[in-house]
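Bumping with the actual sequence this time:
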Amino acid sequence: MCRRATLKEATIQGTAIWYATAQEAADALTAVAAGLDNGVIRPVVGDEMPLREAAAAHRKILEPGTRGKLVLTTD
């Protein structure tokens, strides 16, 4: 991942939300929601499993080769 980012001269930013003020946290969440809505942020969902299988889901994400997020769904 880092190597690809370097080759593309990409910038990766992060934040420690626990240092943010309430307004900064609200602004960050608004920006994330907007990015999801307009397609700028495209999360990779690797799998979906029912919430009742949360223990199995946790084991699955620890397996080598796991890619994307694992989403727990409710009935």
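The tokens above came from a reply further down the thread. Strands lie at 45-50, 69-73.
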